[in-house]
Amino acid sequence: AQSVTQLDSHVSVSEGTPVLLRCNYSSSYSPSLFWYVQHPNKGLQLLLKYTSAATLVKGINGFEAEFKKSETSFHLMKPSAHMSDAAEYFCVVYSGAGSYQLTFGKGTKLSVIP
Amino acid sequence: NAGVTQTPKFQVLKTGQSMTLQCAQDMNHEYMSWYRQDPGMGLRLIHYSVGAGITDQGEVPNGYNVSRSTTEDFPLRLLSAAPSQTSVYFCASMPAAGYSPLHFGNGTRLTVT
User: Fold this and answer.
1) What is the percent of chain B with per-residue pLDDT over 90, rounded to a whole number?
2) Residues linked to residue A109 through DSSP beta bridges, in sequence order
3) DSSP single-letter state for residue A34
4) Which residues of chain A have pLDDT under 50?
5) Nearest to B81 by CA among B112, B35, B108
């Protein structure tokens, strides 16, 4: 069984300040974890993925995420927010074990204030 | 490279009407899936397929039908539309290994009145 919880439904930051979007997961097996971004009226785009290599994963557009097994967390970070980062972000877990099913978090909407 | 193509982009139906949402991918992916996205609910899996001739139900399959006759195409059928099916629908595909990321289409916004 697997599940994912995005701890904040909405995060608001000022342009140029750090971004932290929090994600906790549970999984019966060693998981793969993904972050996707969805801009308004668009499909989802992969930001980054963790598949049991380095625990600090770098993605596109300056985002990175840290896998912490002891805390079952996979938080998404960016040192300095840009207006173009305003979007909805989804954390996704996949446990494998012969199943193709991925589990999506409910999403975190990021607002960036000029 | 087209990726995942969904048609139509927008659709309005009356209660009881039927329609098919089309999805095609040109990446030779074995896995294809349909999700619906509703505010505050994230994405919920409707049906998925792991290859031609193989389909299975996801989290919210009721009221929807699928088939997979080719690797490329995975249409989603609404047999008798209901207002509860008003949503944005996304088709997504990935290679056989589930550790690969999903490739998403741009979505179909469906309104049922």
Assistant:
1) 84
2) A10, A88
3) E
4) none
5) B112
Distance CA B97, CA A46 (A): 16
Q: Is A8 helix (H, G, I), strand (E, B) or coil?
A: coil
Give the residue-averaged pLDDT of B68-93. Answer: 96
Tell me whether residues A101 and B42 touch, CB distance under 8 A.
Answer: no
A95: phi then psi, degrees, rounded to nearest 5: -100, -10
Round to whole Å and give the CA distance between B111 and A12. Answer: 30
Averaged confidence pLDDT in chain B? 93
Q: Do B48 and A42 touch (CB under 8 A)?
A: no
- Which residue on chain B is closest to A96 by alpha carbon? B98
pLDDT tens, A71-102?
Answer: 999 999 999 999 999 999 999 998 766 666 78
Query: Residues 7 to 36 of B: which have CB under 8 A from any A CB?
Result: 31, 35
Gap between the Cα atoms of A64 and A41, Å rounded: 24
Mutation pick from B32, B43, B94, B108 vs chain A, by most beta carbons of A within 10 Å, is B43
3-state SS track over chain B: CCCEEEECCEEEECCCCCEEEEEEECCCCCEEEEEEEECCCEEEEEEEEEECCEEEECCCCCCEEECCCCCCECCEEECCCCHHHCEEEEEEEECCCCCCCCEECCCEEEEEC
Determine how β-strand A87-94 pairs with β-strand A32-38. Answer: antiparallel
**B90: contact with A, CB 8 A cutoff:** yes
